[in-house]
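Technical note accompanying the year-one report. For the benefit of new consortium partners, we illustrate the data format agreed upon in the data management plan: each record pairs a sequence with a structure-token string. No post-processing was applied to the example shown here.
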Amino acid sequence: MVLPDQAAIAAAVRGTRWHQVLVVPSTGSTNADLADGVRAGDEPGRVLIADVQTAGRGRHLRPWSAPAGTQLSISVTVAVPAAAAPRAGWLSLVTGVAAVAAVREVTGLSAGLKWPNDVLLDAEPGGRGGKTAGILSELATAPGGNLVAVIGTGLNTTLAAADVPVETATSLQLAGAADPDRTALAIAYLRHLDAGLTAWTDDPAAARAEYLAACVTVGQEVTVSLPADEVLRGTAVDVDAEGRIVVQDAAGKRHVLSAGDVTHLRPA
């Protein structure tokens, strides 16, 4: 299986915040590798892509893995300015917007975001829709005390039906993209993410508007699984300025929930 083209990606993102691009055949976790680098003093703006992750993780420590050559596993490091630190929860949401934009641009598939950052695909005729990407954003502290975000995205490209982890998952190929190009997807994703991160620091209202335009959850009837087996049913009516989902129940009460509060959120 041909790896994503490191030289082509690095050349295409020259002039953005991404100053170093590394593609490796295998690693434990791209997020863990970059977080270790941050703590050792590496400058933000690094990109690490692995063909295979042997210890990849999703939210709530769920495992995230795929056979070689079937996924774009990509992590980046992003400086978190002090002024933007209160909005750090938005980082994974902004990343989701970039992933959706890249999928649309490279494959032409219809993609959207399930709050907070699951990339969902509508299937082409005869294809299989569902979740094709997940995002995990973590914070690491550099030696001088500055915060750096480590953001990992796993995008299923050519994952076969027999290999999808759950029935609700899919890949670009299963949804109808004939030959997803991981190099092109990485380039588009990194460019869109660079622009989205600029909006996150400089124009938070614009970043939120872009997210709401891509989010398919707002307006849906949803069932929310909370800790201690509590279940909330209602309508997702908004995503607030802090990136939290707002769910209105049948009595009209609004519940504001962060990603850390929610175990699962599904259409009702």
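Partners are asked to follow this layout when depositing records. The chain has a mean pLDDT of 93.
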